[in-house]
Amino acid sequence: MNRILLEPAEIGSDGRAILGGERAEHIRSVLHGEVGQRLKTGVVGGLVGFSTIEAVSPDGVTVSCLHDEAPLAPWCDLILAPPRPRVLKRLLPQLATIGVRRLLLVGAEKVEKAFWGAQLLKEEIYRPLLVEGLMQGAVSTTLPQIGQCRNLPRWFEKGGFAEMFGSQQQRVIAHPYADEAHQAAASSVATDGPAAVPVFAIGPEGGWTDAEVALFEAHGFVRHGLGARILKTETATIALLSRFLPN
């Protein structure tokens, strides 16, 4: 927890807030918080800055907030064929940490059908995981937007891709069978500047089918491989995004 985030409703009109639960325990036990100590804080979806501890008690930690700095904006979008729920649960905080703006979970051929009934797909379940990731990253307050698409070919056919990502020219699909020409094309993807938000597509642990790869390539995606090793989804996702992570 490198920056403590508050919900907008937690901060009173006088700029004060009372933190409880895990955040208060972190302040007491890890940061050894004392009256007068300054903490890195921010508002979910808002500004970042500092808060000063005014009181510490078993019931909570009272702070006075000053948030006047713009956070770092997310830098990429991700189309992901989701892994098993317990794996996705570990991955979601990492996606928030690394700066994903929009996450679309898609029903590729090798995605288990039972996934779509998972409790994890409910906002009240996944939202705290995303906030956890933002607090780890310390520089952003924007929660990734999460969407679902159970039928990938139909989504392309009905114009879903064009509607969501059609304006983005930087498109990369993770695929182990990428030759030097594909690698060179993917490596030229730019991630600097507001108009250069790339979109990445990462398949299930069984891999994209040939038809799915062809479908992405027909919509302007270029292949990018991560070497000969077959990686788990959570490893491949972070490895791929890290290669393009802007400074």
Walk me through this protein's architecture.
The longest helix has 15 residues, at 123-137. This protein has 247 residues and is of the alpha/beta class. It has a six-stranded parallel beta sheet, sandwiched between helices. The protein is built from eight helices and eleven strands.
List the helices and strands and how they pair.
Blueprint: E1 4-6, E2 16-19, H1 21-30, E3 38-43, E4 48-57, E5 60-69, E6 76-80, H2 85-98, E7 100-106, H3 123-137, E8 145-149, H4 152-157, H5 160-165, E9 171-174, H6 180-187, E10 199-202, H7 210-218, E11 222-224, H8 233-244
Parallel strand pairs: 1-3, 6-7, 6-10, 7-8, 9-10, 9-11
Antiparallel strand pairs: 2-5, 3-4, 4-5
Report the order of strands and helices.
Answer: EEHEEEEHEHEHHEHEHEH
Tally of helical runs:
8
Helix content: 25-40%
Biggest sheet architecture: 6 strands, parallel
Query: How many beta-strand runs?
Result: 11
Distance between the termini: 21 Å
- What is the mean pLDDT? 91
Radius of gyration: 20 Å
Instruction: Please state the overall shape, judged from the principal axes of the Cα atoms.
Output: elongated
Strand content: 15-25%
Strand order, largest beta sheet: 8-7-6-10-9-11
Give the key terms.
alpha/beta, 247 residues, 8 helices, 11 strands
Short overview:
The protein has 247 residues and is of the alpha/beta class.
